[in-house]
Design brief:
The protein has 15 helices and two strands. By secondary structure, it is mainly alpha-helical. The chain binds copper (I) ion.
Length: 525
Amino acid sequence: MSHAGVGHHHPKGIKRWLYTTNHKDIGTMYLVFALIMFFVAGGMSLIFRIELFRPEHVFIQPQFYNEMITMHGIIMIFGVVMPAAAGLANWMIPPMIGAPDMALPRLNNWSFWLLPFAFSIALSTMFMSGPMPDFGWTFYAPLSTTFGPKSTDFFIFTIHMLGLSSILAALNIAVTIINMRAPKMTWMKMPVFVWSWFITALILLAIMPVLAGGVTMMLMDRNFHTAFFEAAGGGDPILFQHIFWFFGHPEVYVLVVPAFGVISEIIPAFSRKKLFGYHMMVYATIIIAFLGFLVWMHHMFTTGAPIESQLFFMYSTMVIAVPTGVKLFNWMATMHKGSLSFETPMLFAIGFLVIFTIGGVTGIMCALVPSDYQYRGSYFVVAHFHYPLLSAVMAIMAAVYFWLPKWCGKMYSEAMGKWHFWLTVISVNVTFFPQHFIGLAGMPRRVPDYPLQFTDLNQVSTIGAIVMGLSQLLFLYNLIRTVKRGKEAPQRPWDGAKGLEWTLPSPMPYHTFEEAPDELHGYED
Ligand code: CU1
């Protein structure tokens, strides 16, 4: 007995997507939405990267430059990486735990559909009189409160809607994992991807209300004569930074922990081995998530905090390198003496390891108080945080190539996938590696013109960005081609050793198992 959905009538056309409560439909919508926004936010980055090709003003006004960097950051985080990860969660968590669907399917529909409306509101500020939000993606007070343009109130509404969407999605995912596991699917038998998303959901439930509170205080300051962030009224602009980064640092793990989960599924499959140290991988992720709440002030060393608290936040940040190192070495130990093969998902997974590690190393540099005083506000910071964020993007791409056959029963073009990988991994480094040196040489971030001596490396960076943008068209074409006329995928596309690959058939059935099998993923007990 197989059926695509429960209930008697199946709406067609747009209504099917508007009304759907099916986790696969909603997963697809999240992923397609993320892909569209990836090109929107990527296009914005090309606008300012092309502007930065020459030191003087080329073709956009500084005001528009500020608007573009703001929207690029907000959209890439809330409109690309988070929805893409939610799409993966929707598609893969129910089949991985033996559940027929998410625990709260109607809420699931609403979580998704808030997003297009939220971003329509944010992007509609482009067509309003007066500037778009122009204060950078961190929207620090008083730049966003006292000096924010009128469109800031629409921006605040967008953040509220995004927060609501994230909270509801996280709630749904946590409830699904707690309540919907098949018999014998104990916590320590759960696939690492499911574990990662469980931890991510808990982080989201803790931080999104803080962000929502922060923007509510902004709204009050701007419109209702409060002075939370205004010194003249007894408030404190630094309070905004505390609130923002108490959300903002754990948010980094919201972006990267689902990526950890993806990589923990892919590397064993292409190494034909069990994941090395399953338990340690789970504990390390829990420790990283917990410590993530104790480090927020490393974004604020230069705000005049007491030296004691600067030291505390420096050491707490550096401690995170320990569980992170455990994860990296476990992934490498999984590959060690494995029967490796290098199809596109594995290439992207290895790309993740390299890109993430570079971001981790420059992260330690930024965590050191004396060094941070030098890097603060420079292009070095831009280079640094794009590495972990792009590693998350690479993990999402790895996941899409890895699971696409399970989703649609069809196989993508391996040749095109490999071209996509190599062009991406090279252009990412051509774009962002020089930015470390531009920053160390003294170029500030968020400024559209610069002294002559920074020209060469900026040009290298811009050329890299253009190549990166164009290579993503290859990804888009490969995806469309697969869905439209890809050849039928084999049952086990990656030829993993028995019990080691996630052996759902391609395409996946409505209900994967009634009871978790003993040798589920080949994890060590
Ligand atoms: Cu941080």
